[in-house]
């Protein structure tokens, strides 16, 4: 129960502060049936702060779904010789242009061509101020990914996590590729359990700055924040309802830790679990009708599901004697969690319809899983060489990434939603 108690008690919108440390991404493994795609240098892209074609290549390569063919520069992006690219083994071709406008912004245009059918598949025209040229590239990569795989891309989303160096804790937000790091909160006391609001404008988290765990919600646009739960004892593990109007939290105000719901402004606190054991780590289901949570009511920590307003709980996990940290995919079909087996804490997923489990990680000290909003990847924290880092794995286990910083530990990750 040591780790369960640890959970209970430690359980472009930002403005301006300098980044603490950039993330470094290392990729291993590839997906099955990679799509060969040629990506040309965008005409005049060197005038922009970010090299658009390089970002698109990196995004698509990181997904493991594509085999990248370097197309170099194309003299006339409006005159495509489909047979040439088909003969080079490319099923698709990305071309584009960058133009600086009189107001200082950049016009970024791209086209996606199907070389097999010799036709244009998609195009996108964007106007971006200089600091958002990277975002333009991520949006193009999202469009390519969706048109060629049928799944919405998540490259233009963001992640949040906590870094620790000595007694300095920082809640940071970054692009999904680890770039564009910005500071949300700095403290000399621990910060844990960040959780994105469904619209991506707010983050809930637990801070120990009052010498006890207190739940806050912070607006990432205005930087204003509010206390959501500061009851007697421990206030921990916030997670948002899909409508963004309510959170589930774990509180020990009545003795042992139980699950409560609370409005996003801190009003309307209501207890929804009722057991003689410890109930913690609540997570709303994708449709908001249920709450998954960790409980030791059966003797050891397992994952249960109950109605969003409480009621009888059904046990969900049965493989192994220790399963914690439930997370639900956006389509509601897959449960991710951390399971202890043979002394190792590892990332598992379960198909909720069949109950079939799959281990996704080969590390031994995993925690804090978080689904990408398209459900195709999982972000989690792990440990290697006594340093905590972040890792990303595809839900089929084939593609793996490691995200590290040069100094200190990085942990408590959460993947943000699709942005409007």
TrEMBL record:
Please identify the protein, giving its name as recorded. Tol-Pal system protein TolB
NCBIfam families linked to this entry: propeller_TolB
The keyword Signal is annotated on this UniProt entry: yes
**Self-association and partners:** The Tol-Pal system is composed of five core proteins: the inner membrane proteins TolA, TolQ and TolR, the periplasmic protein TolB and the outer membrane protein Pal. They form a network linking the inner and outer membranes and the peptidoglycan layer.
Q: Short name of one Pfam family for this protein?
A: TolB_N
Compartment list: Periplasm
Task: Say which family it is in.
Answer: Belongs to the TolB family.
What's the stated role of this polypeptide?
Part of the Tol-Pal system, which plays a role in outer membrane invagination during cell division and is important for maintaining outer membrane integrity.
Q: Gene3D superfamilies given for it?
A: TolB, C-terminal domain, TolB, N-terminal domain
Q: Which organism is it from?
A: Pseudoduganella namucuonensis
Coarse class of the protein's main subcellular location: periplasm
* One Gene Ontology cellular component: periplasmic space
The UniProt record lists the TolB N-terminal domain at 23-120
């Amino acid at each position: 129960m040591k780790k369960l108690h640890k959970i209970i008690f430690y359980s472009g919108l930002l403005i301006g502060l300098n980044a603490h440390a950039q993330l470094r991404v290392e990729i291993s493994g590839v997906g099955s049936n990679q799509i060969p795609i040629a990506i040309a240098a965008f005409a005049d892209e060197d005038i922009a702060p970010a090299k658009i074609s390089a970002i698109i290549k990196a995004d698509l390569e990181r997904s493991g779904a594509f085999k990248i063919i370097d197309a170099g520069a194309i003299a006339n992006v409006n005159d495509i010789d489909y047979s040439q690219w088909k003969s080079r083994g490319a099923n698709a071709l990305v071309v584009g242009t960058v133009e600086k406008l009189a107001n200082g912004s950049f016009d970024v245009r791209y086209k996606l061509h199907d070389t097999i059918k010799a036709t244009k598949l998609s195009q996108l025209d964007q106007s971006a101020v200089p600091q958002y040229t990277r975002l333009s590239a991520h949006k193009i990569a999202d469009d390519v990914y969706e048109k060629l795989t049928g799944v919405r891309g998540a490259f233009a989303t963001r992640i949040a996590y906590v870094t620790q160096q000595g007694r300095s804790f920082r809640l940071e937000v970054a692009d999904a590729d680890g770039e564009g790091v910005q500071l949300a909160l700095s403290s000399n006391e621990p910060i844990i359990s960040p959780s994105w609001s469904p619209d991506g404008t707010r983050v809930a988290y637990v801070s120990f700055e009052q010498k006890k765990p207190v739940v806050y919600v912070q607006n990432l646009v205005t930087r204003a924040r509010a206390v959501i739960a500061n009851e007697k004892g421990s206030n921990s593990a916030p997670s948002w309802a899909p409508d963004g109007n309510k959170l589930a939290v774990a509180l020990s105000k009545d003795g042992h830790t139980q699950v409560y719901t609370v409005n996003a402004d801190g009003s309307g606190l209501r207890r929804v679990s009722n057991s003689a054991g410890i109930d913690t780590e609540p997570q709303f289901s994708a449709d908001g009708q249920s709450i998954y949570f960790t409980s030791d009511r059966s003797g050891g920590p397992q994952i249960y599901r109950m109605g969003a307003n409480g009621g009888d709980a059904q046990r969900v996990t049965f493989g192994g004697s220790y399963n914690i940290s439930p997370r639900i995919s956006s389509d509601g079909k897959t449960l991710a969690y951390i399971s202890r087996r043979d002394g190792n804490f590892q990332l598992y997923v379960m198909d909720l319809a069949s109950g079939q489990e799959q281990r996704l990680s080969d590390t031994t000290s995993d925690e804090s899983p978080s689904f990408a909003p398209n459900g195709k990847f999982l972000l989690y924290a792990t440990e290697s060489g006594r340093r905590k880092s972040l890792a990303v794995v595809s839900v089929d286990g084939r593609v793996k990434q490691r995200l590290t910083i040069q100094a200190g530990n990085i942990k408590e990750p959460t993947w943000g939603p699709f942005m409007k």
